[in-house]
Amino acid sequence: MSFRTPGFVAAIDQGTTSTRCLIFDHQGQVVSMAQKEHRQICPQPGWVEHDPLEIWEHTRTVCQEAITNAGVLPGAIAAIGITNQRETTVVWDRHTGKPFSNAIVWQDTRTKAICDQLASNGGQDLLRVTTGLPLATYFSGPKIKWMLDNVPGLRSAAERGEALFGNIDTWLIWWITGGPDNGSHVTDVSNASRTMLMNLKTLNWDDEVLELFEIPRSILPRIVSSSDPETWGTTRSSGPFGEAIPVCGDLGDQQAALIGQACFNPGEAKNTYGTGCFMLLNTGHEIVTSKCGLLTTLGYRFGNQPAVYALEGSIAITGALVQWLRDNLGLIRISSEVEDLARTVEDNGGIYFVPAFSGLFAPYWRSDARGVIVGMTSYVTKGHVARAALEATAYQTREVLDAMHKDSGFELKTLKVDGGMVKNELLMQFQADLLGVPVVRPRVSETTALGAAYAAGLAVGFWQSQNELHSNWQVDKTWQPGMQPDKRNDLYQHWLKAVKRTFDWVD
């Protein structure tokens, strides 16, 4: 059976390791999904790259597959939303669509010298009041500067107006809406807030920051709302959707999950467990400047409504640590085996695994840190290593939550969770134990893609209000805390001691 009337919304979820397309119905249920992994290119230690053209080709493929699998004709798709790995930086030729180089991924640390030089004249928080962000290799601005300074011919092309910059959302929207044939060059406020170039108050590119980074404004996309009733264009009939469908939803992946989890009220928070781990706390229309190592970021903006802000704790390595146990150490064959291996022991055996492979993100922002396993004795087995790896995700989340409480004054009642690691029962129970609050998993776990679908659907009236979205959210499972406070505090203090052992490793 094929559906013809507009009863569905499509979401493109372009992540760090793969690209997916999901088709959602009006109840926010997944009708079909297609997924394809792309290469992780690591030409030097600390460098991580993606091929933008490979990502675009995979996007075309998964969109076609998702539509076919759902039995949905193009006319049944009301709108398209996009969510993406944030900060990953692409610069390309506006006439041909050819990238000037591979994309520099958010995990990449090659811009450390740029950040250190800028910090020497004002400290790591030089731009925090303006942009909400510390000077760190994580963000797009330093990556753009590095490319302009190091990619042959790029700066001169940029000065001639022939180069375009975008995070992955901008790159895909440009291609989907026509590419060199008048494609839309836009980004939403949530993605723009991750560049370190946008003023949090004006929601526009900041001229003083652009001058500091020596970035010409001409290469930057137009900043738009996350859900825009004007839309930014339509798909082309020659593209993967085969018909003109409005493209009108755009959100960075973590902000999309905030919407997918229906965290519309100040004080509500979600945590996404993926390659990294990202907790966002809705602070409403208030810009809360962090004093505890968090990021002040745009949550979302719907149409012409006031922007909603958030505090974010970004953790670089969580699910990626499980992949490391699999691929680098060979302790497990597939990632899902880590829970069974961890259950072969009753506790961590006294060891703590701090995965500062690319330095530490929130709340420390220490690019000089590197990973450690501490507390090793001859008693330790691979089961203890697996358990310590899982527990590291929960400990890092606790650090972020403590910082959020200090910055905002909000006291979390429950933590909504999503992402691939929430299937791990051992981790989720330990997380509830360590936080001392219930951890709640929704029935629809694809919250990142769902948030992008919601943004697009709201723009065209497929969904009428946030209340309608909230009614779609349902609990799948809740983990209640069961650990005694004394034990919780003892474990946590040992973790904090272990974190200090990672500092000052890189000179």
Summarize the structure.
By secondary structure, the protein is α/β, with parallel strands linked by helices.
Describe this structure in words.
The chain is α/β, with parallel strands linked by helices. 33% of the residues lie in helices and 21% in strands. The chain contains 16 helices and 22 strands. It has helices at 52-70, 112-119, 128-131, 140-150, 154-159, 168-176, 189-192, 207-213, 253-260, 319-327, 337-342, 382-408, 425-435, 447-459, 466-472, 485-500; strands at 8-14, 18-24, 30-37, 49-50, 77-84, 89-93, 103-104, 163-167, 186-188, 198-199, 204-205, 222-224, 247-252, 269-273, 277-284, 295-300, 308-315, 352-354, 372-374, 415-418, 439-442, 475-479. The strands form seven sheets. Strands 16-17-15-14-20-21-22 form a seven-stranded mixed β-sheet. The chain has a five-stranded mixed β-sheet with strand order 3-2-1-5-13, sandwiched between helices. A two-stranded antiparallel ribbon has the order 4-7. A hairpin with a 3-residue loop joins strand 14 (269-273) and strand 15. Helix 9 (253-260) crosses helix 14 and helix 12 (382-408) crosses helix 13 (425-435). It is globular and about 65 Å long.
Amino-to-carboxy terminus distance? 63 Å
Whole-angstrom Rg: 22 Å
**So how many helices?**
16
**What is the overall pLDDT average?**
92
- Strand content is 15-25%
Which stretches are poorly predicted, pLDDT < 50 over at least 5 residues? none
Number of E-state strands = 22
Looking at the structure, what is the overall shape?
globular
Q: In order across it, which strands form the biggest sheet?
A: 16-17-15-14-20-21-22
Helix fraction? 25-40%
Characterize the largest beta sheet: strand count, sense, and whether it forms a barrel. Answer: 7 strands, mixed
